[in-house]
Amino acid sequence: MTQAKKFNTFGGVFTPTLLTILGVIMYLRLGWVVGNAGLLGAWLIILISFIITTCTALSMSSITTNIRIGAGGAYAIISQSLGLEVGGSLGIPRYISQGLAVTMYIFGFREGWMSIFPNANAFIVDLVVFLILYGIAYRSAELAIKTQFFIMAIIGLSLLSIVFASYYGSMQIATEEAARWGTFRGSPENGFSGSNFWIVFAVFFPASTGIMAGANMSGELENPRNSIPKGTLAAIALSFVIYMALAYWIARSATEQELISNYNIMIERSFWPPIMIAGVLGATFSSALASIIGSSRILYAMGQHRVLPKGEWLAFEDRLGQPRNAMIVTGILIFVTMLLRDLNSIAPLVTMFFLVTYAMLNVVVIIEQNLGLISFRPVFTVNRFIPWVGLITSILAMFIINPTISLISWALMFVVYNVLSRSHLITPFEDVRSGLFSSFSEWAAKHTAGLSHKQERSWKPNLLIPTADASAVRGAFTIARDIAYSKGSATLMAISNDKNNLELKDKLNKIADSFKAVGVYSSTSLIKTNNFAEGVNYGNQALSSAFFKPNIIFLNLNESQKIIDDFPAIIKEADQLELGVIVYSPHPKANLGQRQKVNIWIDNTSEDWNIEERAEKVDLAILTAYKLMRNWNAEIRILCVVKVEEKRERSTFYLKNMVELARLPITDMAVFIGDFHENIKNGPYGDINIFSLSHDTNMSDCKEMVTIANTTCLFVKDSGHENILA
Question: Where in the chain is the domain with CATH 1.20.1740.10?
Fold first, then answer.
């Protein structure tokens, strides 16, 4: 199959987003908004509208830089965070409403066309426009993007016409007279019987709701993680400046009576009215084109995830990578809605589902930020108050515009969610539901345990620290705390015979209290046995069915030699139980040093090293280093040793690729040639060095490595449940 062309930021995000925002309302209703609200009121309306959309765009930018988003835009974002049920409950009505939006844009184009050719047949105009739109979209998204470039040029010329008009004296009204608060006299339809600020706001607000046009192309972008934030925010910023400037121009170019009674006043006051009319037609056409492409991609994505019946058929791609079957269904939907001829009664529903989408995107960021999961590492971070502002203002805007339709839209979403929740959908990607559910008691535990896949995104370090000597735990307190803090835990397991078990348990309880005092949940348990390895292994076997169970065994080389001799048996059993292992080997003098540099050492690369396959060998080491980096405010250095020069380039590529995909704040990487131990001895200093651990590693070798590296060392073995790419 031929690979479909991927789009860059300008063509795939900025252009469709800008053209959707600069739509027909700008040409035919902005003058009326200024006439009713006055220049000051119009500016306030524009400002409020763009605050709502900007907050949502910032939230969307944050979440898209934290996940590898597929096709479907907002549907994909919400599904990957809150599950397919929530994503589908929004995606299905949003898909339908987006199809209705295409029809409304076609009707808008027809009205503009018939203002030029009043004798044209309305249905024929609608049909021809639909066929042209569908033909462009069906041919390829690339042709649609090229068409939008042409339309953007027309809209640019229409704005240039306004610049010429102002230059040649259209602004006859004095600034002091123009800069007024409006009298809200109403419109020709209500006989100028009056309106109010929020009615005028409701008329203008849909103009600012085009911010998802670029995100809907997520599956066909070269780099959606980079393009969606940049393209969307740039389009919002430019369109905001344009709207504010146009409001000022029209306020000084026409009287209040002209503004409220003549919807074509901007066209008439421009330097060259024909190009303005072309702009109106281009605006409706481009909005319809962006919506037909975006809606088909939403349907395609839902087909991929089997949210809808015949999902496999809907997810079909042709040899060019175009979602043909989804396009066919979308075309049928649009054509059927065209036969209704009047969509005024359900038009507000389209705006409502835009706002519901905005609200849910902000909810996703609020949940991610408050769960505090280590998997939430967005490249683009936003202040905690921004998604709250976006959520609250989106809901307020819904009920200001139309309270009844707002309630209907939310009710529709809950109905769809209820249906999908009974469908037992299989989620093909990780989400944060387990992290959310675990915040609730037994109810949450039951629901999370029922999920059919591992929750790698909600991973956090839950340490099991077995010991026969409380003083050894006290010596490892700092490193254990810094690995577990803030969302992890530390379970202290005393392995003792009958002679000293109560004394040991009492000492561990005090250490557990110290963990709790610094923000790490801790508990203690006691296993009575003379065999250290058996006690630890039996304890882990018993805990394997628990919901909140340790996932890392923390072994301390400060224990007595008799205890250390049992470590290999514990590591072997941990492998069977799918538990991670960290062996702590402290330097007798340096301890943890200045806690400024963390070295991760990787060796034994190969020519066909695949990051997806290799991940399970270094994931826990990197996640441990990341926790130490955050809690120490330190820097991570990744160091790789290969035996021959020929492998340097491949190893360097692997390291850079891994760091980029894992969204790690690491810039210091190096590849060394030759003997592993020699390179460690002569390599860059680190306050702690982290190495991989295998089940046949000798503990005496771990102690020897401390001497070679001349620092404290951690030896780490993955469980298979960690994933730095999550």
Answer: 9-421
